[in-house]
Design goal:
Helices cover 30% and strands 28% of the residues. The protein is α+β, with helices and mostly antiparallel strands and 195 residues long. Strands 1, 2, 3, 4, 5 and 6 form a 6-stranded antiparallel sheet that branches.
């Protein structure tokens, strides 16, 4: 089964919420490295790491009840930014665990950490900033509102927004100041000839 099929299964079939699972609880997704995850060097490439994380994120959101809430409210989630740190390579048939947890949010995005381990050893750490949007109106949904509604739906007291880890806060600050408009191009480009 390809990663995109796994992602669709977890998103569209809507894996049932796990009783007692709350927004800040970690979720562990177990997988095995498959041939389609590999590149020519016979290791999992950077794009495949992101697909593995997508599958784990779909599982995480479903287990905490977020998939059902999003379907009921006509919300959809999008990755706004991500950063990855690769420590050890993953190879064919490796059994891996991806531990996913919400590490915080601000007025625009949820921030989720995804730690990939093999045999208990760290392979990769990714942090993803995800926004949610209404498919009816196109409006962005404030993460704090989602956290409160999810708690209400699941019957627990809303959790306090945790302080983001220093490295994640610095990462957010670095790209928050980056330009969002396309880089202007010279209207009269010059052709260069290779020598």
């Amino acid at each position: 089964m390809t990663r995109m099929v796994q992602f669709a299964w977890r998103t569209l079939v809507r894996t049932r919420p796990v009783p007692g699972r709350r927004l800040l609880d970690p979720v562990v997704t177990r997988m095995r490295v498959l041939p389609q995850d590999l590149d020519a060097m016979m290791v999992v490439n950077n794009g495949s790491h992101l697909q593995l994380i997508d599958v784990a994120a779909a599982q995480q959101i479903a287990e905490m009840g977020g998939t059902r809430l999003a379907a009921k409210r006509s919300w959809v989630g999008f990755v706004a930014a991500s950063t990855m740190r690769y420590r050890r390579p993953l190879k064919l048939w490796d059994r891996i665990e991806i531990t996913s947890r919400v590490i915080g949010w601000d007025d625009r995005l949820f921030y989720t950490e995804h730690v990939i381990t093999r045999g208990g050893e760290l392979s990769t750490r990714g942090v993803v900033g995800r926004r949610f949007v209404s498919t009816r109106t196109g409006d962005r949904i404030v993460p704090g509102d989602i956290a409160s509604l999810l708690a209400q739906e699941r019957g627990y007291v809303p959790q306090e927004r945790p302080e983001l880890p220093a490295d994640v806060a610095a990462w957010i600050s670095s790209w928050n100041g980056a330009p969002t408009d396309p880089v202007p191009t010279d209207p009269t480009p010059t052709a260069r000839t290779a020598q």
